[in-house]
Amino acid sequence: MKAEYDLSKMKSRKNPYAAKLKKSVTIRLGDDVVGYFKEMSEGTGVPYQSLINLYLRDCVQQHRTIDISWQSTKADTKAV
């Protein structure tokens, strides 16, 4: 092994993993949601942002969708 290496002749290349890097986004989450993942984080030792990312990735892989249709109740249909 050499004491020093000459890297001046080394060719640069693009990071092959750049496409897989995470993208920074701003998102508003409820305190209860953040608290839930932070609590889970303490138990697992995984940062809460990573847990949120893992959960959302699982939703993507499982092709989960959400039903956000409003369900009427008897109180909604009563005339006031």
Molecular structure report:
Helix content is 40%, strand content 0%. It is mainly α. It has a domain at 30-63.
In short:
The chain is mainly α and about 80 residues long. The chain has helices at about 30-45, 50-60, 75.
Short descriptors:
mainly alpha; single chain; 0% strand; 80 residues; 40% helix
Mean pLDDT across residues: 88
Radius of gyration: 24 Å
| Poorly predicted regions | none
Global geometry: elongated
Separation of the first and last Cα atoms = 87 Å
Helical content class: 40-55%
Please outline the helices and strands:
Blueprint: H1 31-44, H2 48-61, H3 74-77
Helix pairs in contact: 1-2
